[in-house]
Write a structure and sequence with these properties.
By secondary structure, the chain is α+β, with helices and mostly antiparallel strands. It has a six-stranded antiparallel beta sheet, with helices on both faces. Strands 3-5-4 form a three-stranded antiparallel beta sheet. Helix 2 packs antiparallel against helix 12. The longest helix is centred in the N-terminal third of the chain and has 19 residues. The protein starts with a helix and ends with a helix.
């Protein structure tokens, strides 16, 4: 009996001893943000991602952002950080494979193509437009026409009458639609017809159709899809939302895609800086935040203050009608894309949606 009691006591002590040992707690492994810049491979549908949690973003604010985007008639929305997808959402029947028109956000594709043609020695943006368009491309006198350079087309400072509110004349590219309003460089006006002539300038200078030149020099190199649609009076680019993000990523990296320079650095710096003294917030067809004043697409009024106050001051943007947006923020290594129907205003570029959207974005990323 005494022997049995010893065994029982021993078992009890062993059990108590085992219970006294704390089971080590295993902390859940939290992934850290991947380092380095990432470029999705051309011709591939794969794209690296990083989660908002890894970036310490406010995930609880995402539903509010998504609700806002959906309510504002958005179709596609992407946010890249160091080239990796953090957010990719589609709304209102749109999908990853659907194309959408860039409208005037596509002007930025043209400005970069002009820079490539210059870098390859086909043209100089300081040359008169007549060098590439011929002597009768406008209704101006020879003296006034020869004041207009390729750079004036890029900076919207041709001085040509812009016919605000007269849509057919505003987009027209016939000589009868190009009439004198002011000397080149003395007036800023958002002029679709004058912009469109840049495609003819590149075609005539290179001896290659603009579309083919752009596809070879930019689109195919960075893996974009999409094409120029010339079935209407306007020449518009359309692609999927990821292609818009690819374009923003090239611009975020100052014209370099992976290890290849696509856009000359000197030209890139000029393109993304104030191009004239009238509209401080306009480069070569790019909109610039952080400047002392700006002008809208339909007014000659110079407005004091930032283009988009809620956005980072170093942000540059491709802005198109019906609120097509490609925002590039070098200081944060961010690219933000929004495409869709109008968010509420009928504007060719800047709208109140820009500032409202950045308020929602800031709630997530800050």
């Amino acid at each position: 009996m005494k022997y049995k009691n010893c065994i029982i006591i021993g078992l009890i002590l062993a059990f108590l001893s085992s219970c006294s040992k704390e089971t080590p707690q295993v902390e859940p492994e939290i992934e850290t943000e991947p380092s380095g810049m990432y470029f999705p491979e051309a011709g591939s549908t794969s794209w690296e991602t990083v989660s908002p949690q890894q970036l310490n973003w406010n995930e609880d604010k995402l539903p509010n952002l998504y609700d806002y985007l959906e309510t504002k008639n958005s179709k596609g929305f992407i946010v890249l950080k160091n080239g990796r997808i953090v957010i990719e959402k589609y709304f209102n029947g749109h999908s990853q494979n659907d194309n959408w028109i860039w409208y005037s956000a596509g002007k930025t594709l043209v400005s970069s193509t002009v820079g490539i043609a210059q870098d390859e020695g086909y043209l100089s943006i300081n040359d008169t437009s007549s060098d590439y368009l011929g002597t009768n491309w406008s209704s101006l006198t020879t003296e006034k026409q020869d004041l207009i350079t390729v750079k004036n087309h890029l900076s919207m400072s041709t001085g040509l009458q812009d016919y605000v509110g007269q849509n057919l004349k505003w987009i027209c590219t016939q000589p009868s639609c190009f009439n004198y309003e002011a000397d080149a460089g003395e007036r800023w006006a958002y002029h679709q017809g004058a912009f469109t002539m840049l495609k003819d300038i590149v075609t005539n200078a290179t001896g290659t159709d603009f579309n083919d030149y752009f596809y070879t020099k930019i689109r195919d190199k960075i893996g974009m899809n999409g094409s120029w649609n010339e079935q209407t009076l306007l020449t518009l680019y359309a692609s999927d939302t990821r292609s818009m993000a690819r374009w923003g990523l090239l611009i975020q990296n100052e014209g370099i895609w992976d290890a290849e320079r696509i856009i000359n650095k000197t030209y890139f710096d000029e393109m993304t800086s104030t191009s004239q003294d009238i509209n401080k917030s306009y480069g070569y067809l790019w909109w610039l935040n952080g400047k002392e004043s700006y002008m809208s697409t339909t007014s000659q009024t110079v407005v004091s203050g930032l283009l988009i106050p809620n956005a980072p001051t170093d942000m540059i943007a491709a802005l198109g009608a019906n609120d097509q947006k490609i925002y590039v923020v070098p200081s944060r290594n961010l690219v933000v894309v929004r495409c869709g129907d109008s968010a509420g205003e009928t504007q060719l570029g800047l709208s109140s949606f820009d500032n409202e959207l950045w308020g929602k974005i800031n709630a997530v990323i800050n």
